[in-house]
């Protein structure tokens, strides 16, 4: 007995242990069909890296973006669609296989215009189906691929030029060759770990001849060096086996970046733009590189070589060439003279000529893609490329709320989270120039703070008065010159509405909206003079201010205690004050595992406990691509790493959930990651979310929306993340669980929008429907499963299609029941498709899974901004119901006509003796039906006059879709139509007593099948 009891206890214990085993949801199981939506904007677009056109089809063009992936046009560049969203969004080079251009495309990732804010790539990709699907080929550590050349006579022979790492040494640099289509690769040209391939081109007539421009370069967080003794131009005439410098005529001394291009119509003509201290400019060779001659040193050709190093030659005329630059330069005399391209966004990176007509050109800029039909004299912008590169975003509490943010080279803006017809270009408002960064709304007043690169200007914009004031803190006599980061931090106090903070090497505070400033800290950086070099650029001096270092980068005031302020610096310091800035403590030495001087990119002060904060460190400027995410609960005395192997890419930003302290959102260079257990497990969010760099995340407290500012795909929103707050182990052990949902508001908003054309980008509005969210422990595969909405008495109002996936499922309900049964007729009756809206109240959600039914409740509320009274709502619902019933009455009446009509027509064909009785019935029935529904026409040019069904459906649709009580005209029209309906019913009764009675009698006498008519209840169920 004792032994049996012991075994039983062990079995029970094992069972409880299995039941209590931790369940971890990841990916699709965790997020279900919770989806991101893209709102752009596209009116300022973003940086384009590479353009490629199809060699035989002038309608197909590809564009590679700095942080927005690869886009394809099939209509000659009028519009583009993304084709690379699942992979690294920073693009270096695109190549189309000339032997299979409809299918085979290669993409090398990693931007090659090496400014300080560039993203990185993760290798080489190939598509065999025109970009629908992609396979990674390798080069995982290449970081930046600048060139892909394919032998036009042999698709298996491919050359790849790797520019390599920007921030450190890289053995991956050089020219690689494959002869088996990418299965194996050999490095055929390599100089050293500091020198990469800037350009690699192939002779179009002889694929054994290649030219390679090698570039020695290095960027640090505080400077840039372009050039050195290893920068050179090489040529191979034996398919890459041997390489020789071709510098005859080149300037003396060290060289920098070299652009190179071959004239497709005459490969002996080669152009290069050389960065050098002396005699820099455009060089031309007419003997395939054997000798060179300097033609032109115009500023437009030599400005910022690290950013503009692309020459493109007209495919038909070797004397027409274009050079990228601030404004783009075009020559029509072989490079002797140049003029600017037409008006467009500055900073031109790539150009392609149309394959058939050189007057048609496509240009990639910092502001998107432009087209020209007149050889570059005038330019037209492509309006549907939402590639905007946000550095920072914030949200306000308006309804609908607005999103504010600053863009790379495209100023600062704000726009709505929703707008009638979708979020259009005209919905966005400008609030700053240049490179825009932090943009913040005053908590109470219609005042917006914004800044321009390096705090050159910090604006306070009174929107109501349309007044702007520069409120930037300035150096005070006798004190140190101020150092502001290119992305200088601004923060608004949650405790004092007029209080704002800004960081130089000091923390500055203003309690009067920026009119006066006070320093509340000493220099909180390392103040390392070696990282404060005023000169930068190497061979070409480049003083943009983007390399200003040893600065404060992030400021976080505790939302719980205004005296607690966290500061992070770009040179690795984490500082805290607990007394409003009187004293500061450096907590950096307490953080284990982070290399010294790693950029403190973001600090998030917790809303749950004033001693808790999160710190994100970004080491990529030290060539360290690992993520660093830490949490402290004791004011920085100890720190815990939250990084797991689930996180991909170096991290930039973290957002703590306002209600669930274990729910965190992390932005990395390759997308969004979410944890529901405080960092033990992370999942990448991929539902309509590309693998783009997420620079900043904010939560809108009223709507629970997660708002992301991406550096390449604009603003991306995940609407209402509140279900994620409710996930816990107790819930996950259930077979089925319904999530609690806040009351759903039946919006009554109207307004006009949707004025954009099909070639313009329009951001998605949030879903307006109710969301029914539930969890399934296992995927439902067998047996019955249905989802219904019922009233509180259990009467089913509508059937919905249930989600059956393991994990989280989301089903949408539009607050409507079933549409009425519509009378059969020739035309469409769009109003008849309208389902009546249910009134506000509480409804049952019934999920039947097998033999078991699970129940939940959902509450609907009227729009709190509504001006409609309860009496008006009741009137609208009453008339809607009456018209609904009229629609179904008419449908049944027409059905009652159609059944004997069909039987009479059949009888007329089968029995000549029945001609009289059948004809009388047909004539009477057809005459009545023609007065009830349209029975002829084609719904367009041969449209018949509307009859009762069409007019009744229009009236029903109008009344059912409105919220207001019906107008007097609608009520009068209802009376007219119901009189016609009653008249039709009376007429049918008369026909039934006369012509149909005779027909019925004849069928019975001849023992023929009778007229079959279902009762109304059965008819409506069909």
TrEMBL record:
Taxonomy, superkingdom: Bacteria
Keyword Oxidoreductase: no
Entries under InterPro entries matching the protein: Sialidase_sf (IPR036278), Sortilin_N (IPR031778), WD40/YVTN_repeat-like_dom_sf (IPR015943), Xyloglucanase_GH74 (IPR052025)
Name by which UniProt lists this protein: WD40/YVTN/BNR-like repeat-containing protein
Annotated Gene3D superfamilies: YVTN repeat-like/Quinoprotein amine dehydrogenase
Region span, Disordered: 520-543
Organism: Aquimarina hainanensis
Keywords from the UniProt entry: Repeat, Signal
């Amino acid at each position: 007995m004792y032994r049996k009891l012991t075994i039983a206890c062990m079995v029970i214990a094992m069972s409880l242990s299995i039941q209590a085993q931790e369940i971890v949801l990841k990916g699709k199981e965790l997020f279900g069909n919770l989806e991101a939506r893209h709102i752009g904007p596209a009116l300022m677009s973003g940086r384009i890296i590479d353009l490629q056109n199809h060699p035989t089809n002038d309608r197909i063009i590809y564009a590679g973006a700095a942080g927005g992936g690869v886009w394809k046009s099939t209509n000659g560049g009028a519009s583009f669609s993304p084709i690379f969203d699942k992979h690294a969004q920073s693009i270096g080079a695109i190549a189309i296989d000339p032997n299979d251009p409809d299918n085979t495309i290669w993409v090398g990732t990693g931007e090659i215009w090496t400014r300080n804010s560039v993203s990185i790539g993760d290798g080489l990709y190939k598509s065999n189906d025109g970009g629908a699907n992609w396979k990674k080929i390798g080069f995982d550590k290449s970081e930046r691929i600048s060139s892909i050349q394919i032998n036009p006579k042999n698709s298996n022979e491919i050359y790849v030029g790797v520019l390599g790492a920007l921030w450190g040494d890289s053995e991956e640099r050089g020219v690689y060759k494959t002869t088996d289509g990418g299965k194996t690769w050999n490095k055929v040209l390599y100089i050293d770990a500091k020198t990469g391939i800037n350009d690699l081109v192939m002779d179009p007539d002889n694929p054994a001849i290649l030219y390679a421009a090698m570039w020695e370069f290095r960027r640090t967080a505080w400077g840039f060096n372009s050039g050195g003794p290893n920068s050179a131009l090489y040529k191979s005439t034996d398919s890459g086996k041997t390489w020789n410098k071709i510098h005859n005529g080149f300037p003396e001394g060290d060289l920098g970046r070299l652009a190179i291009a071959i004239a497709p119509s005459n490969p002996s003509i080669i152009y290069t733009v050389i960065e050098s201290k002396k005699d820099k400019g455009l060089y031309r060779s007419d003997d395939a590189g054997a000798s060179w001659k300097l033609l032109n040193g115009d500023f437009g050709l030599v400005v910022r070589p690290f950013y503009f190093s692309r020459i493109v030659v007209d495919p038909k005329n070797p004397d027409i060439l274009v050079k990228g630059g601030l404004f783009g330069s075009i020559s029509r005399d072989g490079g002797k003279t140049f003029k600017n391209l037409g008006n467009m966004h500055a900073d031109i990176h790539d150009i392609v000529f149309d394959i058939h007509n050189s007057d048609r050109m496509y240009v990639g800029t910092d502001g998107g893609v432009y087209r020209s039909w007149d050889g570059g004299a005038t330019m037209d912008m492509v309006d549907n490329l939402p590639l905007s590169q946000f550095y920072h975003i914030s949200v306000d509490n308006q309804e609908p709320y607005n999103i504010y943010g600053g863009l790379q080279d495209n100023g600062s803006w704000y726009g709505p989270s929703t707008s009638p017809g979708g979020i259009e270009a005209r919905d966005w408002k400008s609030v700053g120039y240049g490179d825009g960064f932090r943009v913040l709304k005053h908590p109470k007043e219609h005042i917006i703070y914004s800044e321009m690169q390096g705090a050159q200007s910090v604006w306070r914009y009174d929107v109501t008065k349309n007044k702007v004031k520069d409120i930037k803190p300035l150096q005070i006599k006798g004190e140190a010159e101020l150092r502001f980061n290119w992305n200088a931090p601004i923060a608004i106090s949650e405790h004092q509405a007029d209080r704002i903070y800004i960081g130089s090497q000091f923390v500055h505070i203003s309690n009067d909206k920026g009119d006066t400033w006070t320093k509340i800290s000493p220099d909180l950086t390392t103040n390392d003079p070696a990282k404060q070099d005023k000169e930068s650029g190497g061979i070409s001096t480049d003083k943009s201010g983007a390399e200003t270092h040893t600065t404060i980068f992030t400021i976080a005031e505790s939302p719980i205690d205004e005296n607690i302020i966290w500061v992070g610096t770009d040179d690795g310091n984490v500082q805290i004050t607990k007394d409003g800035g009187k004293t500061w403590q450096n907590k950096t030495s307490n953080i284990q595992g982070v290399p010294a001087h790693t950029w403190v990119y973001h600090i998030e002060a917790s809303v749950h406990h004033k001693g808790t904060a999160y710190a994100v460190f970004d080491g990529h400027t030290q060539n360290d691509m690992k993520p660093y995410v830490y949490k402290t609960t004791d004011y920085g005395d100890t720190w815990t790493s939250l990084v797991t192997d689930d996180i991909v890419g170096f991290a930039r930003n973290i957002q703590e959930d306002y209600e669930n302290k274990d729910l965190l959102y992390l932005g990395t260079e390759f997308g969004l990651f979410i944890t529901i257990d405080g960092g033990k497990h992370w999942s990448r969010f991929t539902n309509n979310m590309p693998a783009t760099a997420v620079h900043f995340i904010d939560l809108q407290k009223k709507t629970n929306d997660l708002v992301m500012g991406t550096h390449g795909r604009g603003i991306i929103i995940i609407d209402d993340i509140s279900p994620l707050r409710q996930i816990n182990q107790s819930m996950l052990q259930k077979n089925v669980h319904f999530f609690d949902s806040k009351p759903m508001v039946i919006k009554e908003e109207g307004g006009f929008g949707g004025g954009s054309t099909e070639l313009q980008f329009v951001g998605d509005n949030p879903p307006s429907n109710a969301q029914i969210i539930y969890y399934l422990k296992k995927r439902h595969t067998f047996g019955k499963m249905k989802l219904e909405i019922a009233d509180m008495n259990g009467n089913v109002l509508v059937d919905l299609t249930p989600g059956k996936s393991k994990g989280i499922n989301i089903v949408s309900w539009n607050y409507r029941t079933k549409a009425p049964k519509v009378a059969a007729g020739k035309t469409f009756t769009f109003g008849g498709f309208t389902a009546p809206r249910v009134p506000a109240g509480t409804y049952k959600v019934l999920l039947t899974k097998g033999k078991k039914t699970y129940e939940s409740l959902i509450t609907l509320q009227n729009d709190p901004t509504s001006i409609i009274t309860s009496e008006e709502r009741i009137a609208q619902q009453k008339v809607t119901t009456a018209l609904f019933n009229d629609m179904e009455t008419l449908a049944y009446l027409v059905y009652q006509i159609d059944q004997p009509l069909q039987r009479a027509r059949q009888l007329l064909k089968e029995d000549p003796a029945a001609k009289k009785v059948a004809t009388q019935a047909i004539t009477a029935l057809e005459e009545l039906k023609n007065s009830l529904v349209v029975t002829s026409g084609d719904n367009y040019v041969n449209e018949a006059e509307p009859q009762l069904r069409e007019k009744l459906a229009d009236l029903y649709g109008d009344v059912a879709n409105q919220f207001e009580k019906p107008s007097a005209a609608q009520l009068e029209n209802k009376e007219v139509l119901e009189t016609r309906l009653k008249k039709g019913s009376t007429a049918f009764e008369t026909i039934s007593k006369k012509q149909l009675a005779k027909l019925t009698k004849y069928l019975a006498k001849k023992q023929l099948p009778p007229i079959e008519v279902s009762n109304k209840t059965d008819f409506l169920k069909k």
